[in-house]
Amino acid sequence: MRAWLDGSMLEDPQAPALRIDDHGFTVGDGVFETIQVVDDVPFALTRHLARLTTGATLLGLLAPDDDVLRGAVAAVLDGAGLGLGRLRITYTAGPAPMGSGRGDAPPTLLVTAAAATPQPASASVARVPWVRNERSAVAGVKTVSFAENVVALAHARASGADEAVFGNTLGNICEGTGTNIGYVVDGQARTPSLASGCLPGVTRALMLEWCDVVECDEPLSVLDEASEIFLLSTTRRVQPVHALDGRRFDAPGPVTSAVMRAWAAGAAVRTDP
After folding, report:
1. Per-residue 3-state assignment (H helix, E strand, C coil) for 75-131
2. What angle do CA 145, 151, 154 make, to 5 degrees?
3. What is the pLDDT of residue 94?
4. Which of 33, 79, 102, 217 falls 20 to 30 Å from 140 in CA-CA distance?
5. Residue 272, φ and ψ in degrees, nearest 5
6. Closest-CA residue to 203 (of 47, 39, 42, 54)
């Protein structure tokens, strides 16, 4: 792993570096981005940085400096030798008193890069009994507060699945713990709209630009009618699902295959679409 923290590379990324009163550590007050790296080049960096800035602003944090962000990314990836890697940018409110109130210290910016392993060809998913709140103050923001996802993913894995699927308070499909979701009904590829409370995924946005997929908000139970399901994320890109709550699918099905081809063709044109 390579790491850059608040202006300089860390000689030992495993050594203690963050202050113990950092608000991102104590109460999860921060945002982050995960970016796929291929041959030391980050994919869709501009979109990820824009989402990081939007998320920080929605949390009420000072917007990070774009030049600083890009310089940190370049420093971490320079000579990293990552054929397939994962870049993470973490931006927090910085040191603060214990509790919900923020201090007056500057924000903390951490950028790390490490090797990644390829995702499986397909995944299994399970619906979980908890819901996303589409009216939450942080709906659609990629915060570092991931405890809800940790619990849901553990629940899904205990049932033999690879990923969890949340509904929202309206009973509609929302998202996974680290994924957006797509599905096929009557031959049409669909995905929940941002009104569902799902994360505005970069992979999802590119899919809507490049592929024949429509946004619609439907009950979670519509997945019982789906002939195909697929997941979307930075590391998975478009990943077919072979099982939902134990019900098996051909993966990828024909519509998912078409989405995968169209997405791959779009991504092949340039690394920062």
Report:
1. HHHCCCCCCEEEEEEEEECCECCCCCCCCCCCCEEEEEEEECCCCCCCEEEEEEEEE
2. 130
3. 97
4. 102
5. -130, 70
6. 47
Taking only the tens place, the pLDDT of each residue in 56-85 is 999 999 999 999 999 999 999 999 999 999
Question: Is the previous residue joined to 252 through a cis bond, with omega within 30 degrees of 0?
Answer: yes
| Block residue for tokens 């790296």 | 37
Q: Which tokens sit at 116?
A: 């990644």
Q: What is the pLDDT of residue 68?
A: 98
CB atoms within 10 A of CB 229: 26
pTM of the model: 0.96
